[in-house]
Amino acid sequence: MSAELHLARRYLGGLRRRTHVATVTLISMVGLGLGVLALVVTLALLEGFQSSIRAELVARATHARVVPAEGRRLVDPVRLASVLHEVAPGVEMVQVVRGTCLVSSATDAVPASVSGRSDVLEVGIDSILAGRLMVGVGEQIQVVAPRQRMTPMGPLPVRAVAEVAEIRVPEPGAEAGSVVLPLELAQRLLWGEPVVEAIELRHLADPWRLGARTRAALTAVGAEVRVEGLEELHRPLLLALALERVMIFVAVGLMLVVAALNLLCNVAMVAAEKRVDLAVLAGIGLPPRSLRRLFLALGIAIGMVGAAVGAALGVVVALVLDRTGALPLPRGVFAAASVPFRVDPAMVAFVMAVALALAAAASWLPARLVARREPAEGLRYE
Amino acid sequence: MSDAGMMVEIEGVSKGFGSGAARVEVLTALDLEVPEGRLLAVVGPSGVGKSTLLHLVGLLDRPDGGRIRLDGRDVAGLDGEQRAGLRNRMIGFIFQHHYLLDELDALDNVALPLRIAGAGAAKARARARELLEAVRLSDRAGHFPDMLSGGEQQRVAVARALAMKPRLLLADEPTGNLDRANAEQVFEMVRDLHLLAGLTSIIVTHDEELARMCDGIFRLAPAGARFEHV
Question: Less CB within 10 Å around the terminal CB: N or C of chain B?
């Protein structure tokens, strides 16, 4: 162990003998510890909520979508499907067409977005459209396509009458109503032939990498398609989650900055208190760089203890709150029954690294001042 | 000007403190030569610059003007790291107050210069034990400074000053805080070790009686300095 580390260890060990320095040192440690604790608990809370949102996204949303590189028709969707089955066995594939139709009931007619899906067997409308048309399950609606067909009476719009089998929850942010139809019915209305506009994929075993794998496989076979993965499909939501995490980290992290400023005062106080000792140390040959290291070691040691205790307490608090469900959530508003906490070890390590970096930065200024002082200044002070 | 037999050469050294109207010139164009192996006492009234002189010779401070040579080497161009290295290897300090580190016991205090020089803990402690034995404090090795008497603290400080086998010993009123009996004991110990180790020593003191026991006296006064052979 070098002389400066030996001294730093003994200084910290000897703090018990000098109560005012010990008290301020303890306050610095507690300050850093509280900052780390607050960050760990807050980020665990955030991670808990965000991971439940991501889990919901994975459970309900499309994981990847294959669309034509140009135009609206997918060329040879059957061949594409066989390629995808080989790439990701067990992948769920849904063929899709989309358009806008006029949907009417006995009381009203409104434009609505129409989608046809190969995994849908019965007609469903969302609650927005159901409210506008004043229809419920078992009642009939008429879907009129913008496409026309020639009849002996002249061109007539293509239309279909269907019975509503399901009222669906609207898509987040949706304002217009929507209708979901079996694929063949939607193809007849919108295209008049079995066209597929997109293939939507779900693969619960590997949802986040499905887009990249699909893209690679289809590029390899020369398919002229564009593939959007989970992150592209839900970019606004995922960006909002990432931004939220950064902003919370910065806001709560300011506590760490305040604690680091307090640490700076503490190390400066030790430097003032030990002014003569430091002069004597320099007098017996401790070089300026070692004096600098001595004070950096003191600050980092204080920061390390504070950060370790704060992180350990933060992890324990988060785990206890999560396991016991001590913070219940209103039923029907959130999917979880209580506030979820999820401790990410990488995030804890990152928080501790930030705390240590701040502690080192806070010790640097007094360390630099101590190292630049001529030894005689400290002796004259005495 | 350099002489192979001179351990300390001071030529025209000046040193002042403060600035503007508050500036005080403590030493002005001071000359002094201390041959190797001599025990020199520096005496004079308070505030005349005795400690400042010792600090300049011991590389604890820098002069405003003039030249200082230690063992023929001009120290003006040395940076902080080089000066620290020279202090560690060549110079031993004893101060008026013991200035032992409260957090270290007597053994670790004595071993500290060796640890700074890079010696391992075991080797440094072994040498520190020898030195504590030389100052008759081997039974106090594990005691912290606040558990030692004033005389014992100063003897530990003497042992620390000799840890690196320095060639130059600088003592700033080493007996100033001690009663007569302890003062004589510490002074005799310093003089014995000076002779035994073949040191060059400069001792600042107010005590004329002790000063007369040295090889020479350098008398500093506001009017100027004067050297006396004893």
Answer: N
pLDDT tens digits for range B125-146 = 999 999 999 888 999 999 999 8
Lowest-confidence region among A235-244, A257-266, A331-340, B165-174: A331-340
Residues 6+ apart with CB under 8 A from B143: B105, B106
Which of B93, B103, B112 is opposite residue A11, by nearest beta carbon?
Answer: B103
Is the torsion defined by CA of B121, B127, B129, B135 positive or negative?
A: negative
Q: What is the mean pLDDT of residues A92-98?
A: 94
pLDDT-derived band at B217 (thresholds 50, 70, 90) equals very high
From A232, A260, A289, give the residue that closes a domain. Answer: A232
Contacts of B103 in chain A (CB under 8 A): 7, 10-11, 13-14, 17
Chain B: give the shortest CA distance to residue A4, in Å: 8
Residue A180 and residue A101 share a domain: yes
Say whether B81 and A276 touch across the interface (CB within 8 A): no
Where is the domain boundary, A232, A260, A288?
Answer: A232
In a domain, B31, yes or no: no
Chain A residue with minimal CA distance to B170?
A: A283
Residue B228 has a pLDDT of 63
CA distance A330 to A163: 36
A14 touches chain B (CB under 8 A): yes
Q: Is the pLDDT of residue A50 over 50?
A: yes
- Can you name the residues that pair with A65 across neighbouring β-strands? A200, A228
pLDDT of the residue at B1 = 42
Are A285 and B58 an interchain contact pair (Cβ–Cβ within 8 Å)?
Answer: no
- The reply to whether residue A277 touches residue B88, judged by beta carbons under 8 angstroms, is no
In the DSSP assignment, the letter for residue A261 is H
- B2: confidence class by pLDDT, cuts 50, 70, 90: very low
A379 CB near a chain B CB, below 8 Å?
yes
Which of B15, B59, B60 is most worth mutating to test chain A (most A CB atoms within 10 A of its CB)?
A: B60
Q: Which residue reads 């002005």 in tokens?
A: B28
The structure's pTM equals: 0.71
Q: Which of A276, A287, A374 sits opposite B99 (nearest CB)?
A: A276
pLDDT, one tens digit per residue, over A153-183 is 888 899 999 999 999 988 766 788 999 999 9
> How many structural domains are present in chain A?
2
The answer as to whether B173 is a domain residue is yes
For residue B176, the domain's CATH number is: 3.40.50.300
Q: Which domain holds residue A170?
A: 64-232
Strands A123-126 and A154-168: parallel
Quick one: tokens of A293? Answer: 């290291």
